[in-house]
Amino acid sequence: MSDDPFPAVLIIDDNAKIGRLVAEIFSRLGFADVDVTRSGVEGIEMIRNGNYGLIVCDLDLEPVDGLQVLRTVKSDEEMFKIAFILTETSITFEQVTAAHAAGVDAFLLKPFDIALLKSKLKTVLRRQARRRRIVNDWAPKSMHDAF
Length: 147
Known about the structure:
Helix 2 runs parallel beside helix 3 and helix 3 runs parallel beside helix 4. By secondary structure, this protein is an alpha/beta fold. 48% of the residues lie in helices and 16% in strands.
């Protein structure tokens, strides 16, 4: 992944209309490479085979939910640097706690406005770039050696 301010984005949302809408919003914000899937299972496969810098994932998916996608990404040496935003119409304290423990970068409650999305994106992408630099500077043999 380069230091491009507009990384490739994967939108995972089981509602096709919302997925297309979110993809359109990202395109209008300057993200040229935006993919959409309705399945957490397919999303994980796309992440493993792709070069995404940002994932925007709905929490309430079946059979693999957004929290499971998050845990899969953040527990993998090759994928953990990918910025991850969870979206949902409502979220419980337990879900927030579990997501933070798994390494989520941000939450966005639906429907979200463009100003809030831009603000969250700036924070998340800056944090991701900083994390990538730190990890690349350390260059450990494995992720586990770094911590």
